[in-house]
């Protein structure tokens, strides 16, 4: 597991050098401090053999897109419990397109009412993981998305 | 310590002997025909549970460890008459949108029978940012009410008599500024400051390890709390300047033992900070208040409250040499466990909350928030809050659980578990001490790692089905859907209104004076020995904004860099 702000050795226990290892940026957006879920998900993905980088708190959509490009990840997984998901994911999607990084997949999790799913999917979110999800659903959501897109 | 025990040695021997006979005889025979469902029975935090408890299990506990309500060590409650004299305060937290929107909700809840107010602030306010700050994008008025200047505090409590109803303010890194605004508004209304009652959360150490709202590095944040405690003790003697919050430690993954032990470690750190600055423990400890969760493991939670009271009383009496009994009593606000709520079949949340609320009452709480059944979706609707208030009223008025103080006291099981929890809490406190104390360990990320590990372990238990969530990983109904739930709407206009008001305030004040005052505040912050409250109160009266005041000290102290713990 690495801090996105630091260059350095990966602490991931996954097979980091294998070319087919999925790389995920686990991110927090905006001012939401609830990081329990993000950290648990980071560990689940690592245990599933993925290479995981965690952004830490209080990141703007722009910060997250830059970290994702720099770390060359396949997927950005964002956990949000602040209720601000619609504007923040819309902005994240806009930043990704602006930076020509539309190939990076976006997975949303946290407290997200189903009423807001259409708005998120329109704004560039590729999948939404419900808060009761078990680890296999979290892992297969990501692997299925990456498989469907193909490796880049 | 005397060694007065509750039972004679010969009586205990007799019990042990007859228990052995029962185990070898009737029990052994029964187990052969019907084995128990699990091999291991334990509490949520891992304390082993026996099949049955007898007097032999409590024979080592001196009678004085229980004592009497309102007397040291307060195991049985903090007041001599408990709910016979005054029921707990029904204190539902609310906050959203502009101050007027929250004010309306307050008036609705007072009319429904709520007896104290409690405010949630939006994230920009909590983090010391004005509503027009770029980082506030999308967040204004979202999870709480937006506050930028003292006029917003005035709007928030419009038509509410601050001398009559107690006001709890769930505010942390920017707490000293919101306190200054509250005092300034009370003065403007001609209130007697000595009559103001209420509570600020203002517990910085738990922010760095749990709720994760911060502005400055750890030590300046603790200094700000010190200033707040010392100023409030003199200016507003009936306000609790801090609510030491175990709730969030639990919310982020901590078990019941960690909740209490870590909270007590932070309590010790704050008491050291204030006594070091020259204030006597008895001049501020009576106004320390606490905030714990009431979670799912029913008996463990009840024992947790009892053990916490005992540990706190001993810390304040023995370590800090307090003399006043008021300094030693742990008064606690309780909230039921948001983490236990599910989106799936969300009506089940009513039952979960009612049971947790009953646990808090049997544990002797002083005030309570019961969660709305829709809080797994968004902030609660008015209807959900009404049901939550009704839950407390039913417990208070219909089921006769308030007539007898500490009704579970003396149960062999309850006393044993209370004692076991206390012992484990002391062990954790010893470890914190050996490793250099709470402030250092927060800086190093030690608590953060413990809590992240505990959260992951809990998730694994849910994932494997060992920890059951009804309707989710047991008795799941594939046909349930959550899409039709009515949730609290967000007011899209509220950001613009806050921004317009900020601009109007900035256009109509003496900017030169504010610049001078901000520079003076920054200068005071450079040394450790000036209390920052008087200057802050001057600033808010001159209509400096929350963001400007917090920003001025960011220039002095810098921002906090989070240790990357996963």
From TrEMBL, chain A:
Keywords attached to this Swiss-Prot or TrEMBL record, sorted alphabetically, are: Cobalamin, Cobalt, Isomerase, Metal-binding
Which InterPro entries did the record assign?
Acid_CoA_mut_C, Cobalamin-bd, Cobalamin-bd_sf
Q: Identify this protein by name.
A: Methylmalonyl-CoA mutase
Task: Identify the species of origin.
Answer: Shinella yambaruensis
Asked whether the keyword Lyase is assigned, the reply is no
A Pfam family cross-referenced in the UniProt record is: B12-binding
Cofactor(s) recorded in Swiss-Prot or TrEMBL:
adenosylcob(III)alamin
Q: Which residues form the B12-binding domain?
A: 21-152
TrEMBL record, chain B:
Q: Where is the Methylmalonyl-CoA mutase alpha/beta chain catalytic domain?
A: 43-558
Q: Which UniProt keywords apply?
A: Isomerase
Q: What's a Pfam family this protein contains? A: MM_CoA_mutase
UniProt superkingdom: Bacteria
Supply the InterPro entries for this chain. Cbl-dep_enz_cat (IPR016176), MeMalonylCoA_mutase_a/b_cat (IPR006099), MMCoA_mutase_a_cat (IPR006098)
Which PANTHER family does the record associate with it?
Answer: METHYLMALONYL-COA MUTASE, LARGE SUBUNIT, METHYLMALONYL-COA MUTASE, MITOCHONDRIAL-RELATED
Full protein name: Methylmalonyl-CoA mutase
Q: Which organism is it from?
A: Shinella yambaruensis
The organism that produces this protein has a lineage beginning with:
Bacteria, Pseudomonadati, Pseudomonadota, Alphaproteobacteria, Hyphomicrobiales
